[in-house]
Amino acid sequence: MFGKKDKKELRKKAKLTESKKYKLMIKEEIIQKLIEKEKVLKNVEEELLETKKITQEKDKLSKEYLRRLERLQADFENYKKRQEKKQKEFIEFANEGLINNLLSVIDNLERALDSNKNVKNTKAIEEGINNTLKEFMNILSKEGVKPMQSIGHRFDPYKHEAVMKIETDKHSEDKVTEEFQKGYYIKSKVLRPAIVKVAVSVKEKKDTNKK
Residue 61 and residue 206: Cα distance in Å, rounded? Predict the structure, then answer.
């Protein structure tokens, strides 16, 4: 049988064993809690990464929408400018057809003056025609119409319509030597091209014939 000393020793050992078990249990619980917290942290990190990814995508979309909006605004501004320009041109050139018809009247008056140069006692007629011409030119000038200076200038297909070419060495190549019908501007636009005769060098004419 155990003596008092042995019993005391056994109780002490039992307490130590229980203490070790308790500590082990506590340790396991702490480890378990740490594992759980680690899982929670990992989930939070994954959620944060996902949130960051979504935020970046939204930011990218926002920037794209902003770029599209800026492009639309720029397109709209260009459209407005084009419409304003068209409207301005329409106002400026609204009378173009009427003015063009008036030019033929001026042509006839100028021809009448030319035909009366060699006829006697035509001073009154000439003066009347000149006054009429001046009146017409004043009206046209107020509408922004001005005559084109063509003779002596270089041929320009946007301003001139060549109906004849003259072989000559007196004038430089492509110079307008004669004007059959005057050209006119309306504001900065060619209203009617001048009908002209253009100089061609003798050398070019020969080269053309050889070909």
Answer: 70
pTM over 0.85: no
**Domain shared by 129 and 178, yes or no:** no
Give the E-state strand segments of the chain in sequence order: 145-147, 160-167, 176-181, 184-186, 189-192, 194-200
Q: Compute CA distances 174 → 3, 16, 203, 207, whole Å.
A: 143, 123, 13, 16
Q: Quick one: average pLDDT of 138-160?
A: 89
Structure tokens at 137: 């030119």
Last-in-domain residue among 24, 58, 92: 92
CA separation for the pair 71, 30 (Å, rounded)? 60
Q: Which amino acid is at 26?
A: I
Q: Which CA distances in Å does 143 have to 65, 109, 132? A: 48, 20, 17
pLDDT category of residue 74 using cuts at 50, 70 and 90? confident
Distance separating alpha carbons of residues 125 and 120, to the nearest angstrom: 11
What count of Cα atoms within 13 Å lies in the side-chain half-sphere of residue 156? 14
4 and 48 in a common domain: yes
- Give the structural domain span for 109: 94-143
Alpha-carbon gap, residue 15 to 5, rounded angstroms: 15
